[in-house]
Amino acid sequence: MKSTILKTASNYLLPILLLFSIFILLRGHYYPGGGFVGGLIAAIAFVLHSFTHNTDATLKLLRIHPSSLIPMGLALAALSMFAPMFVGMPVMTGLWFDEPFPVIGMIGSALFFDLGVYLVVIGVVLTILFTISQYSE
Amino acid sequence: MIDNAIVFPVVVHLFTAILLLFFWRKTIAQRMISIAGSLLAMLVAIGLFAQVWDGGILTMQAAGWEAPFGISFVADVFSSSMVLLTSFSGLAVSIYSATGIARGRMIYGYFPIFHFLLMGLNGAFLTGDIFNLYVWFEVVIIASFVLMTLGGRKAQIEGSVKYMAMNILASTFFLTGIGILYGITGTLNMADLSLKVAALENRKLVDITAIFFIIGFGIKSAVFPLYFWLPSSYHTPPSAVAAIFGGLLTKVGIYALFRIFTLIFIPDDFIRTLLVFLAIFTILTGTFGAVIKNNIRRMFSYLIVCHIGFMVGGLGMYSEVAITGALFYLFHDIMVKTNIFLIAGLIRKLRGTMNMDKLGGLYAEYPLLSLLMAIVLFSLVGIPPLSGFWPKIHLFEAGFMGGHYALIAALIIGSFATLYVISLMWSKVFWKDRPIIEDEGVLTDDFQPLSKFRKSLLVTPIVFLAVITLYIGLGAENIASVVKHIAREMKDTSPYIEAVLGTNELQ
Amino acid sequence: MELVLVILIGVLYASGIFMLLRRSMVKLLIGLILLGNGANLLIFLLGGITKGKPPVIDNAAKLFTDIYADPIPQALILTAIVISFGIQSFAIVLLKRVYVLVNSDDLDDLNTPEEEDI
């Protein structure tokens, strides 16, 4: 797409959208939001960038191929899912730190699960969309 | 009793798959991790089965939420034995894939997807929540789509379009059924559903909901008239993939049918007649299809359809003997169907084709290998004392007791047709002299040039499964005691419900 | 509200089935998507539509006395949407691949005859 306005705007939108996606990710435990929605927003940020520049430029910006985010996210999510097993509680029980952290608030295994989902969603969405776009170029 | 051991079969495959994803493109490491993971999964499954067999039904409530509200995982003898059989098939196919799958497919992630598929199967067997069952089914079908299309040639892609369309349709029907069920009962836990559905007064509504489940699972397990996707897709993927599909994917539909129709919807006369009717036509159409096919894998695909009818018929007769027979057949069928597709793959390696007209003389060239294949093929037919024989005795007995003479006739036709096609195949592939074909270039022996180690990787899984099949046939009384135990659990579901919901809920 | 939803679900199922029966593969996919949406709305409707508060109990209270909205149908629908998102994107890639290989959108062209089997 050759629109200067969109191109300039997307340069500014990318960091803002990424920041917003992290905000959505962190508030997800008690309010609407969470890893899936946050991941989609982050993926959309990169997709917008790839629309205005092109797919290769976005891949260069990402440094690693999005598909390598999938195993990392899966591992993080799976570990936080099965971590309670090692302390003798049923799978997927929430484990929490006692003290709240500054800015983020209470941290528990649910946050790490969400973070895993966040990474998987970015990885999957970008892999699929980039595959399709490179396919049709 | 809270016991995390239930989810180990799922966890092992999940972590194996994640580990495999980190070794993307390193095919040698992938093969070793996959075999090690499958071996570990088999040990875990044996442990789980032993625990359930000795100690009774195990349950685990995810995150500790009480039973009807959270997601329950339940391992009774039925589900744990299915997990055990899955792990046997999984191990065999995993070893076979090390040589049987082309390197190009491995680079595109064959092994991780394979383990996600096994994870989904184990999850589907172990869950005690009907929506969770739907989710595991989706895990299974997404993984199977990828395996089906991976590295595809034209024929393979064509098959997968039909496969994909029908399976998505089946899932939609299943989801609709769940929606209606949730609307009329307000619960999703299978044990709780069992109590609530039994208490419903509007039986017609229950029947209609049941039919949604029959359609959904019927498409997945290839029951007449919804089986057409199976013969038009199962002959296309690589043999290792076809083996896991033929052995397990249709059987998970059968598992779900048995679970739903013995626990939630106790079939009334209408549903029973419907199931018996469907079974008769499934057997007959499968039979006719198998008789006319000339390609080994196409013929086996129709035999899958034919033998699905045996199990659905057993469920339709709904006596304890019938269910015993059908479950016995299910156990035998998983092992044998996995194995015959591996054998088809081996024949392809030996001769470069699966067309029976172009094959021949295998017995003269490879006598020992042919005898091994003969054991498996004739177990499939059910020559006594091999494994296919015993369940049929039970099915016939149940048929005569219940007066289902049409089903008995279909069973007899199905059995004889299986005998006919297998002996035809035996004479064409093994005994007949090798035909002279002008265009020799296409038909190459890919087996001879392989190293001894790689040859053993192809043959070991077939031997392994054949030994289990032999055990099912010769040690039939042990299997029968397991199967009778399951049939009793199905007839009297109160121990299951008690284990999930706790004792006081029953009053 | 319920009546509108019932009609909508009926329309979605009917048009989904109609599209499934077309010969074009893209229409087949559209049909599957419509059916999936119909099923999601069905769960939403049958879960019971209530104007209520979120089912969260105050720290002080022991019982929830107000009318509350059932959270389960939403959870089910969200899961179903995520799953169908994955399946549909896979299906689109597959159909694209089929189009490249077969150069046709017609399901009837998808029949490699038995003679060409290996």
Automatic annotation (TrEMBL), chain A:
Coiled coil: none
Classification via Pfam families: MnhB (PF04039)
The species this protein was found in: Parapedobacter pyrenivorans
GO CC terms: plasma membrane
Family (UniProt): Belongs to the CPA3 antiporters (TC 2.A.63) subunit B family.
Signal sequence residues: none
The protein, known as: Na(+)/H(+) antiporter subunit B
InterPro entries in the cross-refs: CPA3_antiporter_subunitB, MnhB
Subcellular location: Cell membrane
Main location per the UniProt record: membrane
Key words, A-Z: Cell membrane, Membrane, Transmembrane, Transmembrane helix
Bilayer topology annotation: Multi-pass membrane protein
From TrEMBL, chain B:
GO cellular component: plasma membrane
Domain of life according to the entry: Bacteria
Residue ranges crossing the lipid bilayer per the database entry: 6-24, 33-53, 73-95, 107-127, 133-151, 163-185, 205-228, 240-258, 270-292, 299-319, 325-347, 368-390, 402-426, 457-476
A Pfam match: Proton_antipo_M
Domain NADH:quinone oxidoreductase/Mrp antiporter transmembrane per the UniProt entry, residue ranges: 129-416
InterPro entries in the cross-refs: CPA3_Na-H_Antiporter_D, ND/Mrp_TM
Compartments where located: Cell membrane; Membrane
Sorted UniProt keywords: Cell membrane, Membrane, Transmembrane, Transmembrane helix
Keyword Transmembrane: yes
Topology class, membrane: Multi-pass membrane protein
PANTHER family per record: NA(+)_H(+) ANTIPORTER SUBUNIT D1 (PTHR42703:SF1), NADH DEHYDROGENASE (PTHR42703)
Family statement drawn from the similarity comment of this UniProt entry: Belongs to the CPA3 antiporters (TC 2.A.63) subunit D family.
Protein name, per record: Cation:proton antiporter
From TrEMBL, chain C:
Cell membrane among keywords: yes
Annotated Pfam families: Oxidored_q2
InterPro entries: CPA3_antiporter_subunitC, NUOK/Mnh_C1-like
Chief place where the protein resides: membrane
Cell compartment(s), UniProt: Cell membrane
One cellular-component annotation, GO: plasma membrane
Membrane topology: Multi-pass membrane protein
Keywords: Cell membrane, Membrane, Transmembrane, Transmembrane helix
The keyword Cell membrane is annotated on this UniProt entry: yes
Source species, domain of life: Bacteria
Transmembrane regions: 6-21, 28-49, 72-95
Signal peptide: none
NCBIfam families: PRK12659.1
Family under the similarity heading: Belongs to the CPA3 antiporters (TC 2.A.63) subunit C family.
Protein name stated in the entry: Cation:proton antiporter
Species whose genome carries this gene: Parapedobacter pyrenivorans
Lineage, opening ranks: Bacteria, Pseudomonadati, Bacteroidota, Sphingobacteriia, Sphingobacteriales
